[in-house]
Amino acid sequence: MHRPARDFPYFDAPPIGLAHRGGALHPDNVGRENTLEAFVTAVGLGFRYLETDVHATRDGVVVAFHDASLDRVTDGTGAIADLTWEEVSRVRIDGRYAVPRLDDCLATFPETRFNIDIKAPGAVAPLWRLIQDFGAAHRVCVGSFSMQRLRDFRALAGGRVATAAGPSEVAALRFRPSRVPPGRDIGQVLQVPETITWPVRHTGSHGAGRTVTRLVTPRLLERAHARGMQVHVWTVDDPHPMHRLLDLGVDGLVSDRIDVLAEVLAQRGAWPPGS
Length: 275
Hints:
It contains nine helices and 13 strands. The strands form three sheets. Strands 1, 2, 3, 6, 7, 8, 9, 12 and 13 form a nine-stranded mixed β-sheet that branches. A two-stranded antiparallel ribbon has the order 4-5. A two-stranded antiparallel ribbon has the order 10-11. It has helices at residues 36-45, 85-88, 102-108, 124-134, 147-157, 167-175, 218-226, 239-248, 258-267; strands at 16-20, 49-56, 62-64, 92-93, 97-98, 113-118, 140-143, 162-163, 189-193, 195-201, 208-214, 230-234, 252-255.
């Protein structure tokens, strides 16, 4: 049964600012996405919402980390799912920063809300256990690009944790709303890019091209709000689209440039949060 966002203490009144990976393009955070140090920067600016991703190590430790492997941003290599926590704990992001455990994040920021993207199937059950252990159901929202992972988490949580709509649920609400009856549970929030781009095959000599479709429209906002859902748009780093989307009526913005977002919200009388 669908429950609206207002039933979950996770959601503040809009507009909401969410620090993407702690604000990965803030000048102080470049090179240290998804680290405790990046999260400290965001919280220090006044952010109450941190967006992060999670994987689980081979021995079931949930870590705040985007990629499946360590290779891109650390001095280590290998898939997190194949490594123990002891092995992961030895690597450094940008040569200096540890990969954080999610339990350390929850403990370090006890008043902060976490928007969590489950990146691997092995993280689903450990994440739910961790949320229970910390009594954090009221300050967590969980989403995933995998409908299976999202369904598995919802089955474990039993409606006790806010969730974001999955990809097929977003698509249905945007393009085929008749397939989403009012009582169907598709989460409490849409977290989407403003547009999506995909390749299209052309006939004749033109070959393949790309087409852009706008996801965030007045009609989508109307449908989501009618269901009591919020709409958060990612990843928005420039002031003009921030203002335009807020004028359109979106409820939250996810940004790497958290300094810019804080300034935009301040110009609109919405910063710091609760002011």
